[in-house]
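W.,

You were right to be curious about this one. When I first looked at the sequence I had no strong expectations either way, so I just let the prediction run and decided to look at it fresh. Below is the sequence, 343 residues in total, followed by the output.
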Amino acid sequence: MRTNELDFHLPAELIAQTPTDMRGESRLLHYQRERRAIAHRSFAELPGLLRRGDLLVFNDARVIPARFVLRKETGGLVDGLFLTEEASGRWRVMLRNAGTARKLLFQEAAIAATILKQEQGGEYLIEVDDPRPALEILDSIGRMPLPPYIHRSRQHDDRDAVDRERYQTVYSKQPGAIAAPTAGLHFTEELLRKLDTGGIEKTFVTLHVGAGTFKPVTTDELSRHAMHSEAYSIDSAAAEALNRAKQEKRRIIAVGTTAARVLESQPDTTPFAARSAETSILIYPPYRWKHIDALITNFHLPRSTLIALVAAMVGLEEQRRIYQAAIAERYRFFSYGDAMFIE
């Protein structure tokens, strides 16, 4: 399909810059595919829309405070995003405005860093003059890696503490992601307990969202887009829960596109099994879904691989109609925005 088929106009004021005052207070657009019906609800109503025996699959990746600022010897600032620690003290990062600098200093601590190598796509290998693990250092000096459409001051922002809490799911467990699985941001501990009470099962997989999630689609044909590869894992408990739901013909509902991509990366000719691997699956119309019966997701960027995934589930024309309805009803969009439930 052509990428421009996924384009739409979104008023800038509908891009949510902050989360709702209380977690779980977001709105929920409920779409029923069989009836092509749209209903406007609150996210708190979700347990009543699910069926006893449904299996919700969550992504328990934990976002690390991966953004930081470095200072050049000349005084100029360099924006950094942590990607991975390749060896003790050696970080793979993305840097902006590094220029020809080689020696840098972390803005929030007296820690020196040396650029060892510049690679493609804005990636660098740096050596950090501190023996502590990268995640420990970032926990004290880093900021949450909010996407670029959420605007914050460059070095400090009064909302940093709120972002630390709210750009993270309440069930996050496995650190390593540099973007949140945002459909999960709406769930509270109370809502999870209601799911248990209602006989709705849940299980967890892990997919660490990488820097590629911010990569725009620049090709005219979506199939030519170089999809980023992301590490994921399915443990034995999740595999067993998924196989049992399949055997008993109960619905499998992905909480977010990341969970959906993990499940759809598995073969449909053999049972689910515990495994750790990488996926670069790109889902767009037409697509035959192998494992997912329903999806909970946020509203996504125009011309993105994520909106293509939604179109693959509801059809391109219905995706356009749903988004037009959401804009008309003034839903909040993107990471801190509202959600939709497609069944």
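Here's what jumped out at me. Helices lie at 46-49, 134-141, 160-166, 189-197, 236-247, 257-264, 305-314, 316-328. And, maybe more interesting for your project: The longest strand covers residues 77-87.

Coffee later to discuss?

I.
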